[in-house]
Amino acid sequence: MRKINFVFAALLIIAANAVFIYAQTPPALPEAPRYQLPPKEIIEAFDAPPLPQAILSPSKQMLALTWRHPYPTIAELAQPILRLAGARVNPKNNGPQRAAEIYAVSLKKIADNSEVKVMVPPQANISNVHFSPDSTRLSFLNRKDDRIELWIADTATGRARLLSGLDRLNATTGDPCDWLRDNKTLVCQLVPAGRGPAPAESTVPMGPNIQETSGKAAPAATYEDMIRTAHDEALFEYYFTSQLAAIDATSGRKTLIGRPAIFDSVTPSPAGEYLLVTKIKRPFSHLIPMNGFPQDIEVWSRSGQLAKKIADIPSREGVSLTGVQTGPRGIHWRQDQPATVLWVEALDGGDLKNKVPFRDKILGISAPFSGAPAEVAKTEWRYAGISFTEKGIALLSETDRASRHIRTWILEPGAPPRKLWDRRQDAAYENPGTPVVRRDSGAAGFGGGGGFGGGGGGGGAIIQTGEYIFLTGTGSSPEGDRPFIDRLNLKTLATDRLFRSDAKAYETVVAPLDDDAKTVLTRYETPIDPPNYYVRDLSSNSRRAVTDFKDPQPQLRGVTHQFITYQRKDGVKLSATLYLPPGYKPGTRLPVIVWAYPREFGDPDSASQITGSANRFTIVSGYSHLFLLLSGYAVLDNPTMPIVGPGETANDHYVDQLVASAEAAIDKVVDMGVGDRDRIGVGGHSYGAFMTANLLAHSRLFRAGFAESGAYNRSLTPFGFQSERRTFWEVPDLYAKMSPFWYANQVKDPILLMHGEADDNSGTFPIQSERFYMALKGQGATVRYITLPFEAHGYAGRETLLHILAERINWFDKWVKNAPPRRSEKTADNQ
After folding, report:
1. Residue 64 and residue 54: Cα distance in Å, rounded?
2. Which has the least CB within 10 A, 153, 468, 538, 556?
3. Is-contact 107 64, C-beta < 8 A?
4. What's the CA gap between 268 and 257, in Å, rounded?
5. Quick check: 670 and 679 in contact, CB under 8 A?
6. Which residues, at least 6 apart from 325, have a Cβ–Cβ distance to it below 8 Å?
7. Which distant-in-sequence residues (6+ apart) come within 8 Å of 762 by Cβ?
8. How far is CA 450 from CA 438, 444, 511, in A?
9. Per the residue annotation, which of 686, 699, 739, 769 is the catalytic one?
């Protein structure tokens, strides 16, 4: 009996201890939020491989097709970066934080469609693909963990080899290499040999960080990633300093050029005998990005000897937001001559408020750069650009901000200027197109980036055949966009239309394939035909396919879309593209998501002009709102939201015009029998997020909103935003009226705020969403606030993008698609 009692007592003690131990165990912590996934059919469409991008060779005989990985992982975005002077760089390899992620390249001959694969390195991570000027070679960068390499391929065989050897390229300021016209030499920026370890930051500060000004006005936009400390300055100097070198594409032999410096840009002359060099120097600004730092602009010989110092540019701090610097600016090579430098100087002190007969003058100086600069022209308005034809005829453009007009003049030696165009810059129907340039000079300048217009060609001279030049454009019209190529006679100014896209297709002219533009390369697509490249014979009006890309997202072919037009109550004509989900039955009313981005216009007619096309092939990628189509929504995409007013006054009626545009859009989709007025949501990114918050603050038109990376308190962007150039102190009431933060108490419908934690866009600091969320929460609004780790203004990580798609579906399903009917307006307004 005693034994049993002893055992029983022991069990009681053990149980009591167990209870005690359990009671002392801390409660489980709530699980951290995890990335969500949207439905399976959306993931499948999301993961469809993107169509290859194409680069036309300077010879116009082949295309370089590039295939890329579309989305980095969040682990890749989480790699350490430096945020210095407005740039984001990878300190391990001296390259940009994010690159093109190309993994394969092939070369397709246009004549017979034969194709050669380029033998890229293992685990290739390629960017900056360029042809040599004669198209016999292809250069590209390959990004590795600890370096960026230069590779070169033979375009006839596709064989590729490493050209940079043990040297590391420095790509912190952009594309580090450029071809010279001799077709065998590349000028590149290298990490200086023998560079020591990066400056170490002291764990104990030696003192405070101090900025000071002495009465000189220095208005500036609000920029991210600025230099903040002396250590930042040291890091900037360390990582951004490069050594120029000429690399022989045949032998790989390297010849150093000049001394190391921080190069903002390096551009070979058209003949390849000189380099136009922009060097950044101290003092480094803590207020503006590196392109506003003090600079020395010089012409060097190929060996690095100083041939001419063009300018010593001071810091751009203090230049007004509507003004320009007073010294030389816009310095560049003249495209039609071997070595002539052009630049512009302000004649009005750089300030539009000063009344002067001429605002700018254009100057030039030619090799050997020993004489004085010669004046090329003066402009009554602000200089906007100058280009030359192959025969030396100049096209000079100037703009007037007050009237929102742009004029282009023809300049010929020994003749007075002749006006070519005088048009409203906002009027899409008046855009005459862009002159076609020859892309074979090799003088692209560092900072290019592939795509059409890359290809080692750079900004060459305008092609001129006899008295003619050629113009290509989007071709906006009341029918929508219909791309074209025109022939313009520079003597008579008469224009002949050589080709215009069919009314049932969208066919853009990539480039003429001969100097008479009798054949052209086009990119053709329709709502059912994926984009492909064609050779079009304009004399016979026939075309032949060069590529045969297949539909990457067949699950979207059930989607239909149409271009719609309607009118605002003040008479301004509006337009949009209405997308309907697969299997839509006419007459069925659907939940509709309106996704938009407002724009400013100087006059109602320009604002009413139609842009866009219903003939595009639907491809959806990234975090596009069009993925909502696979969840049963109709999407009103890019409905025009024009903010109209002359001069600087457009925003004086921003809210009223915004709400009126939204009302007109909703009325249209409801009148069409597509939309359910009680199930309409709204969303947008950046200025579209700002729009979304304003619509919810000043109307009850929408059941819910989705706002990505917006700015909501304009007092935090006091020196202007978007196209607004009046300051907070000039129009404080306007800044308040346009700031939804000031009207947080009026937001009665649910809103989701989303922001990248590493936003790099001017004005949209993450604190904008953080403070707006606090204001909404304090006022009792229904709001969800999401921040995205390691994401910038444009979101990129695969996990992030899929999570956004899931969040968007869940949010709109809850608050729009499945929302109960509204209570009466009186009851709703008193919530």
Report:
1. 6
2. 538
3. yes
4. 13
5. no
6. 313, 314, 316, 319, 346, 350
7. 221, 222, 223, 224
8. 16, 11, 15
9. 686
For residue 420, count other CB atoms closer than 10 A to its CB.
Answer: 16
Task: Please answer whether residues 503 and 479 qualify as being in contact, where contact means their C-beta atoms are separated by less than 8 angstroms.
Answer: yes
**CA–CA gap between residue 555 and residue 573 (Å, rounded):** 34
User: In this structure, what are the phi and psi dihedrals at residue 311, rounded to the nearest 5 degrees?
Assistant: -160, 150
- Active-site hit among 360, 637, 749, 759: 759
Where does 198-268 show beta strands of DSSP type E? 241-248, 254-268
Angle at 351 between CA 349 and CA 356, to 5 degrees: 70
CA distances from 94 to 140, 412, 587, 790 (A): 16, 46, 58, 19
| Per-residue burial over 129-153, b = 16 or more CB atoms within 10 Å of its CB, e = otherwise | bbbbbbbebbbbbbbeeebbbbbbb
For residues 749 and 739, the answer to whether their CB atoms sit within 8 Å is no
Three-state secondary structure call for residue 680: strand
Q: Given this model, what pLDDT does residue 822 score?
A: 84
What are the structure tokens assigned to 569, written together? 């109550």
The secondary structure element, H or E, covering residue 828 is: helix 825-829
Q: Which of 676, 747, 764, 748 is nearest to 713 (CA)?
A: 764
Here the tokens at position 317 are 């701090």
Element (H, E) at 814: none
Residues 6+ apart with CB under 8 A from 40: none
Positive or negative torsion for Cα 458, 175, 722, 378: negative
* Cα gap 337→334, rounded to integer Å: 6
pTM of the model: 0.92
How many residues belong to the chain?
Answer: 831
Active site residue 286: no
Taking CA atoms, 319 is separated from 21, 159, 323, 724, 828, in Å, by: 69, 50, 6, 16, 49
Give the span between the Cα atoms of 682 and 751, in whole angstroms. 9
What does DSSP say about strands 704-708 and 254-268: parallel, antiparallel, or unpaired? unpaired
CB atoms within 10 A of CB 163: 23
- Structure-block tokens of residue 380: 């009554």
List the end-to-end C-alpha distance of the chain, in Å, as a whole number: 73
Pair of tokens at residue 398? 């100037």
Q: What is the mean pLDDT of each run of 10 residues along the chain (831 residues)?
A: 42 41 55 93 97 96 96 95 97 92 97 97 96 96 97 98 97 96 96 96 90 86 94 98 98 97 97 97 96 98 97 93 93 96 98 96 97 97 97 98 96 96 97 92 34 41 97 96 98 98 97 96 97 97 96 95 96 97 96 97 96 95 98 98 94 97 98 97 98 98 98 95 93 97 98 98 96 98 98 97 98 97 57 42
Please give the Cα distance from 718 to 648 (Å, whole number): 16
Residues 213/206, Cβ–Cβ less than 8 Å: no
**Tokens found for residue 329:** 């600016």
Using CA atoms, how far residue 229 sits from 39, 97, 206, 207, 314, in Å, is: 47, 21, 12, 11, 21
Tell me, what DSSP letter sits at residue 556? G
- Cα separation, 132 vs 336, whole angstroms: 19
